[in-house]
């Protein structure tokens, strides 16, 4: 990876009347919905410049592609459609090809309050990428998520979605990342809002099994979670680098995360910590009756953005 040029640059420039393909890359291995918001920014950037965006999670290592499949399969296409249904083979054989920089471009859908609360219509603008099918989840996965919802909840049940992050967020406290609420505070806020918002059940989504255990112990049968595997988290490293001992784990970790975000987006109301998953929930959801976000600042900074 050290010898890769991560700047934005042309690798082929030919007939200017032919399409320009913008290959979206990511240098640092991050979670699925960090990728989602970063790639959303690149897709918008490509459209602004009149280029055709194509996501490449095939030729660069990432948390969802087994090392033995590097260069062979595109992990983005495990979960999402390509923005214009153009794959890497067509793009890399085009007359004009640009490789993106390996980091985010701005603006970006981000876990700031102005985005999460849709101030000035910022969230609505980003949701247009979803409505236009440019960030489309694989239809089979959507159908599977909706089938799971029917198994978990009755059609008339009012469900409060709760999304919390733990593990590496809590142990590493990464600079400039939103501070995550203590689980006791999250429980107390849920206790407060559950009756106020007239909800019957809680759907909790978290990668941290200890958070799930605390919620289930407190709310009993009223707290429902996805039937998923949890990482036995080892302190001092990012969760995206840690694996579960099972077949097809790279794919399944992404799938379970995606299933949770889809299910959260179908809830009646939503409580979330500020993180990339909550950005995904708000991008997917058509409408919530109520939302609440834990705004506790950022690690290492004095801000409430």
SS-based structural class? alpha/beta
pLDDT below 50 for ≥5 consecutive residues: which ranges?
Answer: none
Classify the helix fraction into a percent range.
25-40%
Overall average residue pLDDT: 95
Can you give a write-up of this model?
This protein has helices at residues 32-48, 76-79, 88-92, 113-116, 122-131, 139-152, 167-172, 183-196, 209-219, 249-265, 276-284; strands at residues 9-12, 20-24, 52-55, 96-99, 159-164, 201-206, 223-225, 269-273, 291-294. The chain is α/β, with parallel strands linked by helices and 305 residues long. It has 2 domains: 9-99, no CATH class; 139-294, Rossmann fold. Helix 6 (139-152) crosses helix 10 and helix 10 crosses helix 11. It is globular. The model has no long low-confidence stretch (mean pLDDT 95).
Which secondary structure elements does this structure contain, and how are they paired or packed?
Elements: E1 9-12, E2 20-24, H1 32-48, E3 52-55, H2 76-79, H3 88-92, E4 96-99, H4 113-116, H5 122-131, H6 139-152, E5 159-164, H7 167-172, H8 183-196, E6 201-206, H9 209-219, E7 223-225, H10 249-265, E8 269-273, H11 276-284, E9 291-294
Helix pairs in contact: 1-11, 6-10, 10-11
């Amino acid at each position: 990876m050290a010898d890769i040029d991560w700047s934005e640059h042309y690798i082929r420039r030919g007939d200017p009347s032919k399409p320009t393909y913008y290959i979206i890359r990511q240098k640092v291995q991050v979670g699925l919905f960090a990728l989602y918001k970063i790639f959303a920014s690149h897709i918008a950037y490509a459209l602004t410049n009149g280029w055709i965006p194509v996501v490449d999670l095939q030729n660069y290592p990432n948390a969802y592609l087994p090392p033995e499949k590097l260069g062979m399969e595109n992990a983005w296409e495990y979960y999402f459609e390509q923005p214009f249904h153009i794959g890497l083979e067509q793009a890399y054989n085009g007359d004009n090809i640009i490789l993106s920089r390996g980091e985010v471009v701005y603006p970006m859908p981000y876990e700031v309050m102005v985005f999460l609360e849709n101030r000035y219509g910022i969230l609505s603008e980003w949701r247009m990428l979803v409505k236009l099918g440019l960030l489309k989840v694989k239809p089979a996965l959507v159908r599977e998520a909706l089938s799971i919802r029917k198994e978990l909840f009755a059609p008339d049940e009012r469900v409060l979605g709760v999304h919390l992050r733990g593990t590496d967020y809590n142990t590493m406290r990464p600079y400039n990342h939103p501070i995550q609420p203590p689980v006791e505070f999250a429980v107390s806020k849920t206790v407060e809002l559950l009756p106020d918002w007239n909800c019957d059940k809680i759907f909790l989504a978290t990668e941290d099994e200890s958070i799930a255990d605390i919620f289930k112990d407190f709310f009993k049968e009223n707290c429902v979670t996805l039937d998923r595997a949890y990482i036995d988290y080892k302190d001092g490293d990012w969760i995206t680098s840690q694996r579960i001992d099972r077949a097809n784990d790279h794919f399944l970790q992404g799938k379970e995360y995606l299933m949770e975000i889809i299910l959260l987006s179908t809830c009646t109301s939503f409580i979330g910590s500020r993180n990339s998953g909550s950005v995904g929930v708000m991008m997917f959801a058509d409408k919530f009756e109520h939302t609440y976000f834990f705004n506790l600042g950022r690690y290492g900074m004095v801000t409430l953005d």
